[in-house]
Design goal:
The complex is a heterodimer.
Chain A: H1 11-29, H2 36-50, H3 52-57, H4 75-93, H5 109-129, H6 134-143, H7 147-167
Helix pairs in contact in A: 2-4, 6-7
Chain B: H1 14-37, H2 45-50, H3 55-69, H4 88-114, H5 116-121, H6 123-134, H7 136-159, H8 172-191, H9 195-224, H10 228-235, H11 243-266, H12 274-297
Helix pairs in contact in B: 1-3, 1-7, 1-8, 1-12, 3-4, 4-7, 7-8, 8-9, 8-12, 9-11, 11-12
Classes of the chains: A mainly alpha, B mainly alpha.
Chain lengths: ~170, ~300
């Protein structure tokens, strides 16, 4: 069992297969992959459930709801559910399934989770400004050779390298 | 969502929550009594003795949800002024009237196995426990019979409602019973600390999942082989508005995925038992929410 706990796929093979998955989504769904869109639609659904007036008045949210339109009725939402289910099964098959917080030795669990929440929030905000995230812009847009997507990709990697230095103590 | 028959009182969250908790309690009580009678009480401590302590509380919460749904709350007592043999509601009310005290007596018997010192503190409770313990085995048999009745009833309550074609199938009783048993087992699985107990519970839950899948397939085969209104009712899940929510949340996350994880666990993979257990419990709740909601949409007359 211990040997299994370190079992991961080769990133090169996984990257190649991800490319094939991306190709398949274009063929079958007519759209590429995405992740932040599913989160945004889930948020819109949640806000629409508690404050429908606010959603109707907001130019951003109102694009995704109105009438009988369900914001969750979108390919990305189903795709992300599949990603979670697939990840769970993959972890189970490799014997890696357990409750834990991935973190460096010098940071507390609470600190790590706070940074993750902060980073996730910034990422969500950024993804909405950029009209897509790592998967929607870099992967799907990049595959179609869209100029904006490539600009996004370089800006994303540049930004990540620039910030990594200041955040390194979380991990070492 | 456009509900038909605007004059009909619409069932919201209260009825599915009651059906869910009723099924869960049925599952908890059934396996507690079964393990007790088979002499597995010490081996299966969580399911036999610990969880039944909460059965009356969970049932009480379910009944409270049902009470909130009543339009005329004071009329609740009228159920107990008559017994109508042809009315499923009457059968249900009297089953609940039996299960509630029965589960309380069973909880006291089991509490004495785990926490006798607490029972000693209250003299009258100790006296009552001693009397109850003398009848522990007959009580266990009664618990099994009434928990099956309770689990069945949660489905029959809907299937007796002929005005809704989706509910008008005899499979709902067994389906809700097996689903209730499965959620009860899953609850034990999620809190048990004994590896041996978890292994046995995983196997039982996997069998229950298999039976549920079989019953769901038969449910749709039955509806599709029936009249046009029944076919239309089935279509709500086969391309209609409940397709995604049913096949993803109930069938995928609530049955197939936990089934696969439990299968892998039995095959020796290390999988935290809580993960498939929570999925099964979530799936059980979603099954009732979806069926109560979709049943109200299904109709004999196209509006």
């Amino acid at each position: 069992m211990k040997a299994n706990s370190e079992k991961y796929w080769s990133p090169y093979l996984a990257g190649f297969l991800l490319g094939l998955v991306l190709l398949a989504t274009f063929v079958f769904m007519g759209r590429g992959l995405g992740a932040s869109g599913a989160m945004m639609r889930s948020m819109t659904y949640a806000i629409d459930s508690v404050a429908p007036e606010h959603v109707d008045e907001s130019p951003f949210y109102s694009k995704y709801v109105g009438g009988d339109t369900n914001p969750l009725n979108d390919w990305l939402v189903f795709e992300v559910i599949g990603v979670i289910a697939g990840g769970l099964l993959s972890g189970a098959l490799a014997g890696r399934l357990k409750f834990k917080t991935d973190k460096g030795p010098r940071i507390s669990k609470r600190g790590r989770l706070s940074f993750a929440f902060l980073g996730g929030s910034l990422m969500g905000f950024g993804a909405m400004l950029a009209r897509g995230c790592t998967s929607g812009q870099a992967l799907s847009g990049g595959a179609t050779l869209a100029l904006g997507s490539w600009a996004f990709m370089f800006a994303m990697f540049g930004g990540a390298y620039g910030i990594a230095y200041f955040m390194r103590k979380q991990w070492i | 969502m456009a509900h038909i028959d605007p004059v009909l009182h619409v069932w919201g969250w209260e009825v599915p929550v009651y059906l869910f908790l009723g099924g869960l309690v049925a599952g908890v009580l059934f396996f507690s009594a079964l393990f007790y009678l088979r002499g597995k009480a010490d081996e299966m401590k969580t399911s036999t003795s610990f969880l039944p302590l909460f059965a009356p509380v969970l049932l009480g919460l379910g009944l409270f949800a049902l009470f909130l749904d009543l339009e005329y709350k004071t009329h609740v007592l009228r159920f107990y002024t008559a017994f109508k043999i042809e009315s499923p509601m009457s059968w249900g009310s009297w089953t609940l009237a039996a299960v509630f005290p029965l589960s309380s007596v069973w909880a006291v018997i089991q509490a004495d196995r785990l926490y006798p010192q607490h029972i000693d503190k209250v003299k009258i409770l100790r006296k009552f426990t001693e009397i109850a313990k003398k009848f522990a085995r007959p009580t266990a048999y009664l618990v099994i019979i009434f928990s099956v009745l309770l689990g069945m009833y949660t489905g029959i309550l809907l299937s007796a409602f002929n005005a809704r074609p989706l509910w008008n199938t005899a499979i709902l009783g067994p389906l809700f019973l097996v689903s209730g048993l499965s959620t009860g087992v899953a609850l034990s699985l999620s809190i048990s600390k004994s590896d041996r107990e978890k292994k046995v519970l995983s196997r039982i839950d996997l069998s229950a999942i298999g039976i549920e899948v079989f019953l769901i397939i038969h449910l749709f085969m039955g509806l599709l082989a029936s009249t046009q209104v029944h076919i239309d009712a089935a279509q709500l899940f086969l391309g209609g508005e409940f397709t995604a929510i049913f096949w993803i949340l109930v069938f995928g996350i609530g049955l197939l995925l936990p089934g696969a994880l439990e299968f892998l666990e039995i095959r020796g993979k290390r999988i935290p038992a809580k993960i498939p257990a929570f999925m099964v419990i979530f799936g059980g709740l979603m099954l009732r929410i979806v069926f109560v909601e979709a049943g109200q949409v299904s109709t004999w007359i196209p509006y």
